[in-house]
Amino acid sequence: MIGLPAVIDGMLSGLMGAMMGAMLRDMLAITHPDSIIKIVALIVTMTLLLVLYMTEDLVRKQSSQATVFVLKHPYLDYLS
């Protein structure tokens, strides 16, 4: 279970990251406007890959503990 300090820490970290992103945009030269798009695209891609890896790892751990049944897979759960 996630405690209140962890939630507050996550909210403040998100706020600080947003402010740092705005400062990064101001510091980049206007002669290369596509550089900020490339940096943000790389960060978003890496974050999504990390979330995908963590989700797949969690599904594998939970499925190894449970009885294997094809229709009980999380992505196919809507069928049953």
Give a verbal description of the structure.
By secondary structure, the chain is mostly helical. The two termini are 28 Å apart. The chain contains 2 helices and no strands.
How do you describe this structure in short?
By secondary structure, the protein is mainly alpha-helical.
List key phrases describing it.
2 helices; mainly alpha; 80 residues
The percent range for strand residues is: under 5%
Biggest sheet, open or closed, and with what strands and sense?
none
- Count of alpha and pi helical runs: 2
Radius of gyration based on Cα positions: 19 Å
Cα(first) to Cα(last) distance is 28 Å
Number of strands: 0
Low-confidence stretches: none
- The chain-level mean pLDDT equals 79
Shape: flat
The structure class reads mainly alpha
Share in helix: over 70%
Order of helices and strands: HH
Outline the secondary-structure elements.
Layout: H1 4-27, H2 34-65
